[in-house]
Amino acid sequence: MALGTGINTFLPFLKPYRRQVVLALIALVITAGAMLSLGKGVQFLIDKGLASGSEAGLTQTLLVFLSLVFLLGVGSFCRFYLVSWVGERVVADIRKAVFSHLLTLSPSFFEDNSPSEIQSRITSDTTLLQSVIGSSLSIALRSSLMLLGGILFLLVMHFKLTLILLTCVPFVVVPVLYFGRRVRSLSRDSQDEVANVGRYLSQALRHIKVVQAFTHERHDEERFSSAVEQAFRVSVKRITQRSLLTLMAILLSMGGIGVMLWFGGKDVISGAISAGDLASFLFYSIIVAGAVTALSEVIGELQRAAGAAERIMELLNVSSDITGGQEGSVDSENSNMLQGETFIELNQVTFCYPTRPNTPVLKNLSLTIKQGETVALVGPSGAGKSTLFELLLRFYDPQQGEIRFGHHDIKDYDLTQWRHQLALVPQETALFDQSVLDNLGYANRETDKNAIIDAAKRANADEFIQLLDKGYDTRLGEDGVRLSGGQRQRIAIARAILKDAPILLLDEATSALDAQSEHKVQAALKLLMADRTTLVIAHRLATVLNADRIIVLDQGQIIAQGTHVQLLEECALYKRLADLQFGNMN
Ligand SMILES: Nc1ncnc2c1ncn2[C@@H]1O[C@H](COP(=O)(O)OP(=O)(O)OP(=O)(O)O)[C@@H](O)[C@H]1O
Fold first, then answer.
1. DSSP state, 337?
2. Domain 327-421+501-514+531-586, CATH number (from 3.40.50.300, 2.40.10.220, 3.30.300.30, 3.90.226.10)
3. How far from chain centre, in Å, is Cα 175?
4. How confident is the model at residue 363 (pLDDT cuts 50, 70, 90)?
5. For labeling, which of 151, 178, 362, 369 is most exposed (least CB within 10 Å)?
6. Alpha carbon of 75 to ligand 1 centroid (Å)
7. In the CATH hierarchy, which fold is given to the domain comprising 2-317?
8. Cα–Cα distance for residue pair 544/585, rounded to 1 Å
9. Taking Cα atoms as reference points, which of 471, 406, 467, 466 lies closest to residue 435?
10. DSSP secondary-structure letter at 429?
11. CATH code for residues 428-499
């Protein structure tokens, strides 16, 4: 059964808490035992206590009864506490495991799966699991035991009456299973719809300025509302099935009790059984019926949880297509290399993005970069310059060809170690809603405050940071809305300084900068590039002039390389680009 699959996948998460699970089961058995003994207590109370007319007998039976009640109370407390505890604990562990796993997945995974959809799985699906494990699972376990125990007691007490009761069971179980299954698939749909709503919401709010600038509010409102309504419609379907489930369970189980009472009543009248017998029989029947009803209700819930579990497990089962190798230490490889020796080498690299498998972005590209060299990449928009950086960072692997560092393919190195070799200054600096200090320290969590401030100074960032209301402790809003383009870039440069990696990947952004900040960024970059092997996507003449070599990329291929002067003469595309891009500086 699919519910079983859901539970199986959770077993590894339950394993560390075996002790608590065993204790919960013991509490479960004790409470079920106490509850079932209560029926016998009722029989005693009527037949021995009341019918005997002895007050002492009555008191004695009551004391036994109260002891059972006490046991039941304490046992229930322990059962509920332990089952809920395990539920919460497991869900917390699952959240952590899913997040850690997601961080290892390659960026291509997130192109196919929207982050907000994933977020919904981690938050709303696990919350559903939490509440279901915390309450429904506890009820389901208790009810199952009560059902079994109750039937056993009934069989021992009165075989004929029990058989009458049991003939009703298939009438209850079959519809319960049928509706339960439907609830489950609808529940999955319902969670998917909730995720859709979440996705729409986060998109609109993230791009609120665009929404407002294009006065797109009404349109967004309508689309959001139709997403919400769709989620509502799916939920209503689920609710209908669940309500029907409950209706069936009550009608059938209670109907069975009615019939049984009728037969039992006849036996009491004929003197075949005592009134106490019938009362305790009734007690067990109600327990059994109650257990069936409760089970039918929670089976729906458990099915919902299994649906949610499935969605979470799907995430945990995705494996990253970018994995690291075991090959020797990158650091020692690096330190063995001499200035001017081949450092990075691209051999016949062909690459398509996974979302466009038939459109190669880089075609048979070969390139050698020497240690300490500064190589500028120029080319029209869409030529594949940023893609080259993404391959070096191993966000993707080429379909053909290889990228080598020293004596090995970069795929052979441990992924983390390899990425330690690269410092990226991206065109768009990602900032987090944390303090400036935290944002800078992102590059290297081992460094102390002084080193961070020193790096900020060298990146020409200290000056504007000091002017912020709380200096280095100022929180940057989500997406760093409180910083200008040039300031953000200087933060990125400071990060690269802190990372102190031997290879620098620089994606210049000029558009965001005015002359003054450009000058400051320039100075900071110069310092950063000294003694490093640098690949720079160049938009500035200064960068191009300072580069040891300029590579001209067009449609994923290198069409020329050389110095600025050489290329101006030899490469028409370069000349055109230079006129356009650097025209104002020429
Ligand atoms: N994640 C992606 N999925 C699919 N195609 C992509 C992806 N990223 C980039 N591309 C495509 O790959 C091609 C090369 O893009 P790339 O960003 O490398 O160009 P670029 O030379 O850096 O351009 P620019 O100077 O405008 O940044 C483009 O046609 C682009 O549309």
1. P
2. 3.40.50.300
3. 35
4. very high
5. 178
6. 63
7. ABC transporter transmembrane region fold (1.20.1560)
8. 12
9. 471
10. -
11. 3.40.50.300
Task: Give the per-residue pLDDT at 586.
Answer: 41
Give CA–CA dist 133/141, Å, rounded. Answer: 11
Which backbone phi and psi does 469 adopt, to 5 degrees? -55, -35
Using alpha carbons, select from 488, 511, 483 the residue that is nearest to residue 426: 488
Residues of the chain with CATH 3.40.50.300: 327-421+501-514+531-586, 428-499
353 Cβ below 6 A of ligand 1: yes
Chain segment 81-117, per-residue pLDDT in tens: 888 888 888 888 988 998 899 888 888 888 888 887 7
Which H or E run includes 506?
A: strand 503-507
Contact 95, 122 (CB under 8 A): yes
In SS3 terms, 27-92 reads as HHHHHHHHHHHHHHHHHHHHHHHHHHCCHHHHHHHHHHHHHHHHHHHHHHHHHHHHHHHHHHHHHH
326 pocket-lining for ligand 1 (C-beta < 6 Å)? no
**Residue 1 confidence (pLDDT) above 50:** no
Q: How many CB atoms lie within 10 A of CB 115?
A: 11
CA 286 to chain centre: 43
- Where in the chain do CATH 1.20.1560.10 domains reside? 2-317
Q: What is the phi/psi pair of residue 215, to 5°?
A: 40, 55
Please tell me the distance from the alpha carbon of residue 203 to that of residue 198, in angstroms, as a whole number: 9
Q: List alpha helices for 336-412, DSSP H.
A: 385-392
Angle at 369 between CA 364 and CA 373, to 5 degrees: 150
Q: Does the pLDDT of residue 375 top 90, yes or no? A: yes
Report how far ligand 1's centroid is from the alpha carbon of 381 (Å): 8
Q: Under 8 Å CB-to-CB from 361, ≥6 apart: which residues?
A: 351, 352, 353, 384, 387, 556
Beta carbon of 332 within 6 Å of any ligand 1 atom: no
Residue nearest to atom 4 of ligand 1 (CA): 353
